[in-house]
Amino acid sequence: MLKVDLHCHSNVSDGVLAPAAVAQHARKAGVDVWALTDHDEVGGIPAARAAAQEQGMRFVTGVEISITWANETVHIVGLQIDENNAGLVNGLACTRSGRDNRGREIANQLAKVGIEGAYEGALKYVGNPDLMSRTHFARYLVEIGVCANIPDVFKKYLSEGKPGYVPHCWASLADSVNWIRGAGGIAVIAHPGRYRFSQLAQGQLFDEFKQLGGAAIEVVTGSHTPEQYPIYAQLANSYGFLASRGTDFHAPGESRVDFALLPPLPANVTPVWHDWF
Ligand code: AMP
Ligand code: MN
Ligand code: MN
Ligand code: MN
């Protein structure tokens, strides 16, 4: 059986390894079909594609778009996109554009609770000046010993209601799905089990996504607990969605699940790649 992994990050967004190094890391862990899905950015794709081909892996183009839906941040993965499509490229550029100012505001807020120099500190971890992420702040706060690990930083500082949280309005659900489909791609709701929606709201998100032409949800991801795999497999089937799978790898030792350790999709779903090869 082919090992397919369709969600991970390089230092072109908030991962640590360069795209080619992520490809090597995935291949070593036995991945046969691989997508790089950096946040709001397709700039890593050429290097990722070349490295994947060198490693003998099938490459799938990808991106993970930040959107705001019902006042929450949701992530929509696009697969099999044409990364040069103008509508997609322009939409992503627009989505990225507020990130630097947001980073400065995060740093201002952290300074108010006694953490100085966080903008410059986070910047040390940024591989792409267009893509300052909360993850970069989290790495810095761990570095200076304010928190023991990255989830702890999010819990204490970077999530809603905490002193380093700056609300941000991302793209809309409709924009993201239209950009992906306009670029010939397949839209996938990333890690649906991670959002804090009621069952009712989650159902509304799925319905709206389906109406817009969304095709799949992630079922097995490093951002789900193993208990969530069968729940989202069942939901994929009941909504008529295809199922996707990917580690959401960010860095060796940092991500919950590395490429070799993520289980396969449950047998009762239709994989998003069912008609690709
Ligand atoms: P941003 O796009 O700048 O808002 O940052 C979002 C990123 O932060 C996600 O893609 C994850 O990589 C990371 N993240 C969000 N919440 C958590 C958490 N609770 N623990 C660890 N990483 C998180
Ligand atoms: Mn991330
Ligand atoms: Mn995500
Ligand atoms: Mn991700």
Order of helices and strands: EHEHEEEHHHHHHEHEHE
Bound molecules: adenosine monophosphate, manganese (II) ion
Radius of gyration: 18 Å
- Intertermini distance: 13 Å
What CATH calls the topology of the largest domain is TIM Barrel
Q: For the report, how would you describe the main beta sheet?
A: 5 strands, mixed
Q: What is the global morphology?
A: globular
**Could you say what the CATH architecture of the largest domain is?**
Alpha-Beta Barrel
Side-by-side strand order of the widest sheet = 4-5-6-7-8
Summarize the structure in words:
It holds the Pfam family PHP. GO terms for molecular function: 5'-3' DNA exonuclease activity; 5'-3' RNA exonuclease activity. The strands form two sheets. The chain has a five-stranded mixed β-sheet. Strands 1-2-3 form a three-stranded parallel β-sheet, covered by helices on one side. The protein contains ten helices and eight strands. It is α/β, with parallel strands linked by helices. About 45% of the residues are buried. The radius of gyration is 18 Å and the shape is globular. It has helices spanning about 20-30, 45-55, 85-95, 100-110, 120-125, 135-145, 150-160, 175-180, 200-210, 230-240, and strands spanning about 5, 35, 60, 60-70, 70-80, 185-190, 215-220, 240-245. The protein folds into two domains: about 5-90 and about 170-245, Alpha-Beta Barrel (TIM Barrel), CATH 3.20.20; about 100-155, DNA polymerase, domain 1, CATH 1.10.150. The site of one manganese (II) ion has 4 residues, from loops.
